[in-house]
Structures are given as structure tokens and as C-alpha cells.
Amino acid sequence: MNMPFILLGIFVVVAVLGAVAKAKLASAGSASPRYTLKEPFLNGEELKLFALLRTALPEFRVLPQIAMSQLLQPRSGKDRSALFGSISQKVVDFAVFDQSFKLVGVVEYDGPTHDRGRQKKADQVKDGAFAAAGIEVWRVRKQPTSEQIRAHFFPSPVAAEKVPA
């Protein structure tokens, strides 16, 4: 057999296998969707807290469910990859930004699951990572009032007046 026929045979086999694989993927995708909407995006308590934060802090932009890796980055060094790995799969409940989207705070709603060992450890990692970046994580266990929210972000009445709207 000569070389052109061998190459033609290999090409035909690869083309057929590719078409079969593509057909399987297409039918698998249409028969059973690979993704569905995550519902609810926020649980009931988180939804209430989100509304409270937005109402109490009109000077700020409050965004829910933000990946820590979008807010923090490890400093360079040998352990950079490990440091990134420790935050890459973690999400904060609420990130609070000023009008120019500079992060000014993080709010975490700590429901009953935050008393468990694994969750406590994850919370310590979050707190430590943000503390290293100079950002406080405000952990709330019950719904704060608007006054408590403002008092947290504006410790004195003078400071509250100085924030640009």
C-alpha cells in the first residue's frame, strides 16, 4: 500500500470519530442540560440584609455573592499559588464599595452553619485574608438596624458627613 492511501484512511477514521463525538456531545447537551439556575441566589435572611445595606448605605455600592479572588490577590512570593488556592473557591456575602468601586468593607451573614468546625475554619481564612489587605469583615448574626449599619461604616457622625454621595 502506498502512503497517500494510508493518509487518506487515517483522515477518514479521524473525521468519522470526530463527527461521532460531536453528535454525542450535542445530543447529551440537548437531552439533559448541563446547567440550571441556582435558586435562590440569596436566601431569605441574606435578601433582607441586602435590602437593609442598600437602604442604609446609599453612598456605597453593595454587591452580593462576590468571589474573594475578584477582591484580593496574593502578594508575590513562593507561596503565592497556595495563597490564591486558599481563597479561590470562597465567596463573600456582600462587598461594599465606594462610588469608584474601591472596596471599603465586607459583610458576612453568619447563620447557624457558621458555628460548625469546617465553616469556622473557612471564616477564619476569610477574616485573615481581608485583614491582611486592611479590610474588616463585619460578621452579623441577626439583622442589624439601619442605624447599626451606618454606625459600623461611619463610626462618628462627623465621618458620615464627609463621605461624598
> Uncertain spans, ≥5 residues at pLDDT below 50?
none
The number of distinct helices, counting runs of at least 4 residues, comes to 6
Average of the residue pLDDT scores: 82
* Tally of structural domains: 2
Q: What strand order characterises the main sheet?
A: 1-2-3-4
How does the overall form come out from the CA principal axes?
Answer: elongated
CA radius of gyration is 25 Å
Structural class, by secondary structure, is alpha+beta
Straight-line distance between termini: 81 Å
Number of strands: 4
Q: What is the helix/strand order? A: HHEHEEHEHH
Task: Outline the biggest β-sheet.
Answer: 4 strands, mixed
Tell me the fraction of residues in β-strands, as a range: 15-25%
Q: What share of residues is helical?
A: 40-55%
**Which oligomeric form is depicted?**
single chain
Would you mind describing this structure in some detail?
The chain has 165 residues and is α+β, with helices and mostly antiparallel strands. The protein is built from six helices and four strands, in the order ααβαββαβαα. Strands 1-2-3-4 form a four-stranded mixed sheet. Strand 3, helix 4 (117-132) and strand 4 (137-140) form a beta-alpha-beta unit. Helix 2 (44-56) crosses helix 5 (146-153). The chain is elongated. The chain starts with a helix and ends with a helix. The relative contact order is 0.12. The mean pLDDT is 82.
From the structure above, extract its key features:
alpha+beta, 2 domains, four-stranded mixed sheet, elongated, 48% helix, 6 helices, 165 residues
What is the topological layout?
Elements: H1 3-31, H2 44-56, E1 61-67, H3 80-87, E2 91-97, E3 103-109, H4 117-132, E4 137-140, H5 146-153, H6 157-162
Parallel strand pairs: 3-4
Antiparallel strand pairs: 1-2, 2-3
Helix pairs in contact: 2-5
